[in-house]
Design goal:
This protein is of the alpha+beta class and about 200 residues long. It has helices at about 15-25, 25-30, 55-75, 85-110, 115-120, 135-145, and strands spanning about 1-5, 5, 35-40, 45-55, 165-170, 180-190, 195-199. Strands 5-6-7 form a three-stranded antiparallel beta sheet, with no helix packed on it. The protein has a two-stranded antiparallel ribbon with strand order 1-2. It has a two-stranded antiparallel sheet with strand order 3-4.
Length: about 200
């Protein structure tokens, strides 16, 4: 990925190593089952838990991660003032989330604990995001800017308990003084005006 003249590359070789491991150890995924909540076929739309072979899900996950990382390695995130919203940043957030979600699902299949990684306070520690760890802050930003802009309410460690935030737009910032790249225009549930969040 390129941004501001700097190139960031994801190591696709790690995914290739996993593919090779599965090819060499077919029993590793063929004999493994996963439990999935599915809708019961009784018309009541009540989910039930069922066990399935894990093979197809593992293949799907690896294909999505590999394709997503290849896409991001060729992606250039740059300022675009064509629209009110920074849609290229929204696309970036959603692509990253897909990869994170797939890796998380793979970890669940093989019962790998990820708490030490997901509970870190490294990436967003310089910003004032309440008590949220990196995982919570990322999920808040994605919810606010991409998937739930009219009601981001499930991240109380990041915004406020028993409240919600709305985001009318996230824009590329032209301000050189504040040295920020993006600004999210956020309205709180308390209707006291907007709050600008910078990234």
């Amino acid at each position: 990925m390129k941004y501001n003249g700097i190139e960031y590359l994801f190591d696709i070789d790690k995914v290739t190593d996993i593919w090779i491991s599965f090819a060499d150890n077919i029993a590793l995924n063929e004999n493994k089952e996963i439990s999935v909540n599915v809708m019961k076929a009784n018309g009541k739309r009540k989910p039930i838990s069922r066990d399935f072979p894990s093979g197809n899900k593992i293949v799907c996950i690896l294909e999505r991660v590999e394709d997503g990382l290849n896409y991001l390695n060729s992606y250039e995130l740059k300022q675009d003032f064509t629209y009110n919203n920074a849609f290229n940043f929204i696309e970036f957030l959603n692509c990253i989330y897909t990869i994170i979600h797939c890796i998380d699902e793979l970890a669940k299949i093989f019962q790998v604990k990820t708490g030490e990684i997901t509970s870190a306070y490294d990436c967003f520690s310089q910003f004032d995001y309440g008590e949220g760890c990196d995982k919570e802050v990322f999920e808040y930003i994605r919810s606010l800017c991409a998937v739930h802009p009219a009601e981001t309410s499930r991240h109380p460690t990041v915004h406020k308990w028993e409240q919600f935030d709305c985001c009318s737009r996230i824009v590329w910032d032209k301000s050189i003084v504040d040295e920020r790249d993006l600004t999210a225009v956020v309205y709180t549930s308390e209707s006291i005006g907007d709050l600008l969040i910078s990234y």
